[in-house]
Design goal:
Length: 46
């Protein structure tokens, strides 16, 4: 295997992992925002 192929594989792997983490982070932020809005609209019963 040539080093160029290895570098391309690492770049592709880093891109996939980075995209996955970005998607999880964005979905986590939007979920947290929805939870905050939900708490404002519906205060806890306690």
């Amino acid at each position: 295997m040539s080093s160029e192929l290895g570098i391309e594989n690492w770049l592709a792997l880093a891109f996939v992992i980075g995209g996955t983490f970005l998607a999880i982070w964005l979905s986590g932020r939007s979920a947290a925002r929805l939870l905050k809005q939900d708490r404002k609209n519906h205060p806890p019963a306690e």
